[in-house]
């Protein structure tokens, strides 16, 4: 793609409506779920308490999963399909809609799940399951959103489907971490999502209803009379905080390209002063890798710590994403003349690799982003995505509180991977003079639960062609990095 010199100018704030985000709205309460066990349990309670409407907008959906297997009781009543059926049968005013990406059904069929069009015939009235076919060729609806009564919204990286449930302990084996049909253990899984209430939830409700109308042709009115519906068992991470909603929406069906998520990534990398912490399923976006490389060459650029899975999941993803990662890591490591870049994957106590599906970005003590978008090209311009961010900008009267929250979440995530309390991460960073990279190196261990370095494989000639041509994951957005970087330099000098 050519450079587009009319790209955004970086402001004092990173979260700018119309550029790096769609809207900024206040959340009465905001919470973060690390790994799916607590998320699924909270989701179950929220669905059963819903008054008027529940909308699931997902890449994948499996009604056979158990939502809260740690609780005692009949297993069948804990299955997602039964929970949804109980919710509508128990409340004659409630409607539930499930909108799934159409090609995601191929994944479901491979798992032995009947097509949603057949499942829909077996569900009670007011429970609708349907697929969304409105996307470009090769594109995916990748958002992971659940909206309850337009007053509560879950959004992030966790699909309501099989192979996601796990706890932060990430045991080598867990009796509840099994596939619905085969009961096969499918390995430890790390993921992150978020929850908001208030105007921020209403805004995500607008997005979900827009997706529902686009996918089904049926418009839904907003829910305006629901009571405050925050789950009583969920402790808010922050209250009365501004939440930015950033999107990717491909050019399709008369709608123009929206790539707010990519612009936020570029602005965040450009603005970073000390640290960039990334959790992502992939490291396969050349533009962002080049932006990181540019910052690593600077004498006073930031440290960059990336947590990835050891390898991608599935043959095609391995060919598309692992080959791109190997190529881009060579580019980044060549630029890392000051030794400020590391990439790791987490392992269990028995050194079993933990699959990283989270999509998290933490920049300094300033920005926290949690969403559905991967660090690859398709998430920036081909798939539909939704990310939520909070910022602690200079001059904000709550700057210290928000900054402490941003770094505490980063330390919680690293503490989980390194098998130490978050306070131990914070203390080690302080002992290392603020160096996150040095702290990780001092805390990680060669045995037991920890982080291990990612070692890219040697690429075959075919792999090099795939990586060089980006045949399986092409760029689809205008390149605005140079303009963002120039603007960021001017801002950092102020």
UniProtKB/TrEMBL annotation:
The keyword Lipid metabolism applies. It comes from Geodermatophilus sabuli. Residues 137-164, 352-379 form the PLD phosphodiesterase domain. Residues 172-181 have a biased composition (Basic residues). It holds the Pfam family PLDc_2. SMART domains: PLDc. Keywords: Hydrolase, Lipid metabolism, Repeat. Residues 168-192 are annotated as: Disordered. The keyword Nucleotidyltransferase does not apply. InterPro entries: PLD-like_dom, PLipase_D/transphosphatidylase, PLipase_D_fam. This is Phosphatidylserine/phosphatidylglycerophosphate/cardiolipin synthase. One of its GO terms (biological process) is phospholipid catabolic process. It catalyses: a 1,2-diacyl-sn-glycero-3-phosphocholine + H2O = a 1,2-diacyl-sn-glycero-3-phosphate + choline + H(+). PROSITE patterns: PLD. It comes from the Bacteria. GO terms for molecular function: phospholipase D activity.
